[in-house]
Amino acid sequence: MSEIRRRVEHLLKTEGIGGLVAGAGRFLRQKGRAAFLAERYHVFEFETECNDTDMCRPGIEGLEVVVFEHQEEVERLIAEGGYEVPVFHPSFRSVWLQRGGVAFLAFVDRQPAHIAWVALSPEARGCCDGLNYRVDFDRGEACWGGSYTWPRFRNRGIYRYMCGFRLKYMQKHGFSRCRDAVRVGNIASLRGQLRWTPMLCATGWFVRLPKWSRWIERPATCGYPSPAVSSDSN
Predict the structure, then answer these.
(1) Which of 154, 192, 194, 211 has the fewest CB atoms below 10 angstroms from its CB?
(2) How many domains does the chain have?
(3) 1 vs 21, 60, 91, CA distance in Å?
(4) Rounded Cα gap, residues 63 and 114, in angstroms
């Protein structure tokens, strides 16, 4: 109960009453999704090679990105003071740092604006989305996911920028490709990712019932996402 109370306090402080209501709605929807879920996804593949000039940094004063590879780095930043590290937000889970996940936090004037994750190993991939699409880590593939943008920072290009930032990170660590799964109908994610020219590789279905779940994946003819979502607003 103490963790829930801290999350409530965090939402009130960072997003106000509107953010608290939205957070409660997300919580209730997740509870419902836990009982029954049937969703369709597109699986995309990205090349990680990108130039610094392509990273599309938005013109937001006070924007900075902090990368967390270990829990100790989180605790160190908290101890330094000044940063509002969202440790009680559902998108930030220290357990995934312990399993090898890498967290990317964008701050604006030291306030959280966006969080996203990268997995460089099978043990860490749960930090992204929990879907079992194919990722060949031994052959230079990684995956990403777990993104969330705080409401007052949406539609300002931060998500698109963070995609490029993560691709650059993966390339630096020896990974030439990245895969992810985007739920069909999630236009916001597609718009942010299109700048990095993903290739459609598979279609997947995730079905969950009480005490049972299954991921079904079918290869697709590789190609680009629909130009109907080619404009960026994230």
Answers:
(1) 211
(2) 2
(3) 18, 37, 18
(4) 10
